[in-house]
Amino acid sequence: MTTSTIATFSSRLSRNLATRYAAAFFVTAAALLARRALNPLLGDYVPYITLFPAVAFSAWYCGIGPSILSILLSVIGAQYWLVPPVDSLRILNTAQSVGILLFLLVSLLIVGMGEVSLRELSARLLQLQDDERRRIARELHDSVGQLLTGLAMNLSVMRTDIERLIKTAGSITDSEGLVQEMSREIRTISHLLHPPLLDEVGLSSALPWYIDGFSKRSNIKVDLDFPADFGRLSHELETAIFRVVQECLTNIHRHSESPTARIRIKRSATEVRVLVEDRGKGISAEKQSEMATDGKPGVGIRGMRERIRQLGGTLEIESNSKGTAVIAYLPLANVSALSAVDAA
Ligand SMILES: Nc1ncnc2c1ncn2[C@@H]1O[C@H](COP(=O)(O)OP(=O)(O)OP(=O)(O)O)[C@@H](O)[C@H]1O
Ligand SMILES: [Mg+2]
After folding, report:
1. What's the CA gap between 82 and 28, in Å, rounded?
2. Quick check: helix, strand or coil at residue 320?
């Protein structure tokens, strides 16, 4: 059922037609009984007096059909019980006919008026309903709507901020990682450039520390043979030995393809012997001749040789297809005396 139909029936007694017919019937019957009860007072004078309200009630609350039922019941009931001859439907004279006609006319008028005012009421109700809806819609739009728009804008700004913060947090974490990595690298580079252990404790600590790090970085297994009673040497000799080991291991990693390396350091009364060997592919004949003619090999071996020469020692390189061995001999004699001889 549509909204307008509901509104049209809003002043009806009930939406059920049978109920409305029954109501019209009972109201009319009650009106007839009431008029009959008034008989001792009124006699056959104004027989329809109590029936008009019943018709009006039916017209207003029960609808057209029940109203017509009420009118018919009223006419028949009045004619039968109230208008002489009583208990008969016979019409005696013109006055009675005119009475019936007048009652019918007035009743129809009441029904008509009821219908018209009901329609007006329904229309007015609909209009009021529309006005109210329009007002509520405007209120919602102007108050809650505006607030919601503001809230949505705030949320969107917050979302953008949070996304930016999440990105920034990610960058900060990355940067922290980079800083830690850099600090580790700088520490390693600094220690490799000049291990602090070499000055403080000597080769017995500096060599194992360097070899351990080298093995981890290169995956080359290094075997170190270093006497426990080796003792300390001069600063220059210890540095030279450390650099020889460092350069030889670097070369093994870069050029030899050997999975292992062996370092043997021995000390006699007069000299120190340092051997670093690998089981790699060896130095090519071409490279060896380049090095022999003092051509253009790298600075590694040349630098080693030069440093050892300055300390009065010698460097030998034996290389074949089974591997390379670098042997340095360093005299334990007075270094400054040899340097003085060199300078002369
Ligand atoms: N253990 C080794 N096994 C095989 N080849 C080697 C080995 N050591 C050195 N070589 C060869 O000898 C060459 C000279 O070595 P050297 O250390 O003088 O220079 P480099 O390692 O090439 O450069 P850098 O100046 O950086 O040390 C190398 O280029 C390499 O071909
Ligand atoms: Mg080198």
Report:
1. 14
2. strand
Q: Is 262 in the pocket of ligand 1 (CB under 6 A)?
A: no
Does 303 sit in the ligand 1 pocket, CB within 6 Å? Answer: no
Tokens 């108050």 locate to: 143
State yes or no: pLDDT of 340 exceeds 60. no
pTM: 0.56
* Best residue for ligand 1 mutational test, from 251, 263, 316 (most atoms within 8 Å of Cβ): 251
Q: Is the CB of 297 under 6 A from ligand 1?
A: yes
> What pLDDT, in 10s, does the model give residues 179-227?
999 999 898 888 888 888 899 999 999 999 999 999 999 999 999 999 9
Contact 246, 222 (CB under 8 A): no
Q: Residue 218 is encoded by which pair of tokens?
A: 């290169």
Mean pLDDT, all residues of the chain: 88
For 344, the 3-state DSSP assignment is coil
| Cβ 335 vs Cβ 311: under 8 Å | yes
Question: 195 — alpha (psi -120 to 50), left (phi > 0) or beta?
Answer: beta
Domains of the chain in sequence order: 3-140 (no CATH), 195-343 (3.30.565.10)
8 Å CB contact between 278 and 288: no
Report the separation in Å between the CA atom of 270 and the middle of ligand 1, taken as the mean of its atom positions: 30
Of ligand 1's listed atoms, the one at least distance from the Cα of 299 is 25
β-strands 260-267, 271-278 pairing: antiparallel
Beta bridge partners of residue 264, listed in sequence order: 225, 275
